[in-house]
Amino acid sequence: MPRSVNHVASRAKRKKILKLTRGYYGCRKNVWTVAKNTLEKGLTYAYRDRKNKKRNFRALWIQRINAAARLEDLSYSKLMGLIHKAGIQINRKVLADLAVNNPEAFKAIVDKVKNA
User: Fold this and answer.
1) Residue 9: other Cβ atoms inside 10 A
2) What InterPro entries is this protein classified in (predicted)?
3) What is the model's pTM?
């Protein structure tokens, strides 16, 4: 009995991967084996960098808070210690946004924790 091969499914699988690799350079976009390997590697990088993105943004927020805190004669660590001691529930993302876009509100928070 002849071998049965599902050409429709295998071709659809290849088309799906080649569609995802559009815009890649050279053989990476149209040669099946190269495109498959490149896409798998790219998805691995995407997974890793979704985690690293959180790390990078947290570091950016800390730098912004530190720069604004130093204008108020405090270091980042002392400011965060005072904020926690005063019982103010504010995260670094919001605090960094205030430091950049609304310095008066940031100054008000710093004054409040200094007095507490």
Assistant:
1) 9
2) Ribosomal_bL20, RIBOSOMAL_L20_CS, Ribosomal_protein_bL20_C
3) 0.79
